[in-house]
Structure formats: C-alpha cells, structure tokens
C-alpha cells in the first residue's frame, strides 16, 4: 500500500539552534491510527506542525497524499484536519458558526448536511446554537474536532487530544477516534500517555529528543519486546542455584527466598515447564508462583533510557 504521509530525512532546527527533529523518516498508511508517543519536548508537535505546514522544516521532505507540503501547500493542507493542543476558539461565536466558518476557510462549498452529520457524530448537534464560552472544556474540545473535520479531511491530526482531560472525556474521545477510523479517516495522534497509545493505536512510533526510536504495530511491539517474568517463592531459602538451572536466566532474590525467571513469552514456552521441573527434581519446594508480563510502559521507559545513554 502507498503511504498517505511519507516523511524522509526530516530535520528541524529552530532559530535558537535547538535541534527538535533529527533526520526523521516515517511512513503513515491510509486508514491506520498511529500514535506518536514520547515525553514532553520530544518533538511531536514540531513534527505534526511541519506536516500541517505551520512550521518550516530545515531539511528533508514531507509528502501528504503525494503533495509536497511546501510546494503544494494548499493541496496538501486541504486533505488534513488538525486538532491543536490548545483550545483556540472564539468565545462569542456559536458552535455551528465556528464549524461552518472553518469549512469556508478551506474554500469548500457550504454543506449544512455534512456539518450536521459531524456535529451529531460528536454529540454536539443539540449545542449548535450555544456560544463557545458557554461550553465545558470537553465540549470545546469536541468543537475543535468538528472544526478539524469541517472540510472532510482524509487525515486527522490530534495533538495530545486527552491531555488534562478527565477519564470519561478521555474514553469518549477514544470512541470518536475509533469511529472516525471506521469511516476511513487516517488518524495521527500525539500523546505522552502510554495508556492512550496502548488503548487506541494500530501502530506506535516512539519519539524522543527528535529521534524516532521505533515504529511498530502495537500488538507486534507488545509481543516482540514483551518479556515475561515468573516469580517463584520457595519454602526455604537457598544460597545458590541448583546446577540444573544454570542454563536459564534465573536470579535469586529476597535473600534466597525468591527465584525470578525472565523469558521471552513467544520463544520460551517450554522453558517454564523445564524450570519448574528442575526446581522440583533438585528437592526444592515451591510455595507460590506469580507471573508478570512487561507492559508498553516498561518498553517505553527502557527505550527512552537507552536513548539517554543510561
Ligand atoms: N519555536 C521554538 N523555538 C525553539 N525551540 C522550540 C520551539 N518550539 C519547540 N521548541 C523546542 O523543541 C523541542 C520539541 O518541542 P515540541 O515539538 O513542542 O515537543 P513535544 O510536542 O513532543 O512536547 C522542545 O525542546 C522545545 O522546547
Ligand atoms: Mg506537544
């Protein structure tokens, strides 16, 4: 499949010399939800601002649906909807007015039925005549989404869509995003919440200090880097491992009371059985067993630490 966004060797150095993006290449495919996951200052907003034509790049190329975002700015931009992180709305404008005006700004012919369908989809149709200033924070955010959808974009960017949002609103936003995917919209969102990436992304790009550290399907990522650990509590303490366990990655902890066996959940299925059997045949009694599956959070923290050279 051809990418809908194709970014090659993109570099951004701000005028103060700060290198915000360092030779970033990434392809985004039609219909997917991709999360750019990274800590504050990683370069997420810079990256999407360049794709949306709001920030200039220093080097590299960005194509959106084969349009160059610099050379063919208008064509590229018309395919894109952007939900910015900050609430940037006119307080005295109405909901319907805000969203309709936004469509007009893209030079699209008025289409009240389409605007109605967008507002209904976001449960904002009943609020169409309300002024922005009357709305709750969550509703304002939905107006921003409606605004971004007003010109029927193929790609929707959401910059930290649930930062500072309560749990219910977060879940609602995720539902809206999933619905949009169902309708064929490609979704690019930035987040520093691991939970959010884990919850809704098809693919996750981990970004830190202007570098993309990894791009991978979420499920594959969880499997590939997902190590499992098994904690084996013993009836009695031991001071060293029985020799029949030397071949396994086992540590003795808690003063000889616990054994911890780390293994690859995909590859070492037989390992667990062998480890348990070998413990028992060497005459050690087991009191309790617990397993632990590493989460995306562990993977994330590990990658970011490695990037920082620690
Ligand atoms: N206009 C700017 N001038 C100089 N540095 C900037 C500017 N905007 C952002 N930065 C810096 O670039 C880095 C990446 O910022 P940003 O893209 O906003 O990160 P994120 O969205 O991941 O939090 C940060 O170190 C930030 O301080
Ligand atoms: Mg940001």
Q: Helices, strands, pairings?
A:
Blueprint (H helix, E strand, L loop, with lengths): L4 E9 L5 E10 L4 E5 L6 H8 L7 E6 L2 E2 L4 H6 L1 E4 L11 H11 L6 H10 L15 H13 L5 E5 L7 H16 L3 E6 L2 H7 L2 E6 L2 E7 H8 L1 E8 L15 E4 L4 E7 L4 H13 L4 E8 L2 H12 L3
Parallel strand pairs: 3-8, 3-9, 6-7, 7-8
Antiparallel strand pairs: 1-2, 1-4, 4-5, 9-10, 11-13, 11-14, 12-13
Helix pairs in contact: 3-5
In total, how many domains does the architecture comprise? Answer: 2
* Mean pLDDT across every amino acid position: 91
CATH topology of the largest domain: Rossmann fold
What's the assembly state of these chains? Answer: single chain
> Quick one: biggest sheet?
6 strands, mixed
The run of helices and strands is EEEHEEHEHHHEHEHEEHEEEHEH
Query: What is the 3D shape?
Result: elongated
How would you portray this structure in words?
With 310 residues, the chain is α/β, with parallel strands linked by helices. The chain folds into two domains: 219 residues, P-loop containing nucleotide triphosphate hydrolases (Rossmann fold); 67 residues, Alpha-Beta Plaits (2-Layer Sandwich), CATH 3.30.70. It has ten helices and 14 strands. The strands form three sheets. The chain has a six-stranded mixed β-sheet with strand order 6-7-8-3-9-10, sandwiched between helices. It has a four-stranded antiparallel β-sheet with strand order 2-1-4-5. Helix 3 packs parallel to helix 5. It is elongated and about 80 Å long. The relative contact order is 0.13. Adenosine-5'-diphosphate binds next to helix 1.
